[in-house]
Amino acid sequence: MFENSYLKKQILIVEDDREISDMLEKHLHELGYDVIKSANGEKGLEIVRQGIMDFIILDVLLPGMNGLEICKEIRKMNNYIPIIFLSAQSEEIDKVIGLEIGADDYLTKPFSIRELLARIKAIFRRIEAINQDEKEHRILECGELRIDPLKRKVMIRGKRVELTPKEFELLYLLAYNPGRIYTRDLLLDLIWNYQYKGYEHTINSHINRLRSKIEIDSSKPKYILTTWGLGYWFNDSITY
Description:
Blueprint: E1 10-14, H1 18-30, E2 34-38, H2 41-50, E3 55-59, H3 67-74, E4 83-87, H4 92-100, E5 105-108, H5 113-136, E6 140-142, E7 145-148, E8 153-156, E9 159-161, H6 165-176, H7 184-192, H8 200-214, E10 224-227, E11 231-234
Parallel strand pairs: 1-2, 1-3, 3-4, 4-5
Antiparallel strand pairs: 6-7, 7-8, 8-9, 10-11
């Protein structure tokens, strides 16, 4: 079994291009990360199942299982692991699919190693910010909705709701700041970072999916409300 170092974060690279894999390993080592590599999708997933990873860099097109299939399997697991997709496919629909099945970020080949490293650091910073709230263990209880940041667990009317990482971050941000209106651009900055300008429809689809999961009638939402022309906000009239 693979064990995490107390000092170093452990990153798994699942990439069948040896040159890319070796380059990533070199730069990640220079930043102080421990690195494990796999060139095969199924073997990469087995590594995830055997040990605790802090981060996964995942190629989309792989021998064995492809990256999308691996991501879906990882998101069925109890522990949350951030994932960045690497892909030679540059179509917008591919990026949207990758993000909506649970990836935290998506880079198209060829990519800048500096940009990749910057995005990894940004994701770790977001996680640390959430972990700070988790240390306070502020469970949000809003009507029949209960959000536990420590366990990344959401309950509605006594039943657990399965959310993707981005859906959870979006819901937690809104519920943590009830009454504040967030534009789609601001939500992109806070949850997806600046590089997704032009992907505002991703916010719409995530809001719609959240409503379908937590609202009794998603056409008449009680929790996540819309102010047309401005943005989305969490209903601050619900008793906390």
